[in-house]
Amino acid sequence: MTDHTDLTGKILIAMPGMLDPRFERSVVLICAHSDEGAMGLVLNRPLPEIEFNDLLGQLGIDADDQTQQIEVRFGGPVEPGRGFVLHHADRIEDDEAEGMMRIGTDLAMTSTRDILEDLAHGSGPGQAVLALGYAGWGPGQLEDEMLANGWLTGETGEDLIFSTDNEAKWGAALRAQGVDPSLLSAAAGRA
After folding, report:
1. What pLDDT digit, counting tens, does each position of 96-106 carry?
2. Domains of the chain
3. 124 falls in which pLDDT band (50, 70, 90)?
4. Could you give phi then psi for residue 23, rounded to 5 degrees?
């Protein structure tokens, strides 16, 4: 890192003036951030038309009575056919597990078929969500969007990641940062 703060493990909260409708009122967990860009997963956009068991079936993975029912979410507009499992890292012993990336000490993101098979047979991580696609930014792009008042950064919590009350997450994320959502305006100013 050179001139910017590493936002890995932080959240982005879309401000009311967010110009991209795909991110309106969204809360995004930053999974990786460097001079080369950033990658994140939207935390509050469920895909109710996609059931986890159906997705397993499409991948040729047999669900059984031990299958963990996890929520499927829109992770972002980049590579929407690619899946990422966001999960607790509590049951992960190998920090070098293939396809797994740690996000801080308690979270990890895994993109391999193995974790889906584990979830299908009840041996996966204790808490998990599946995101289809991701949000990506090129070098300096996220920083520019932040300077243009598109995003507020903050700390995350398990409720923002694993709760299924997706409608409440945007307001909850703002309140957790000490911001009253009703006082926000879409207009930005410069002094």
Report:
1. 567 788 898 88
2. 11-183 (3.40.1740.10)
3. confident
4. -115, 10
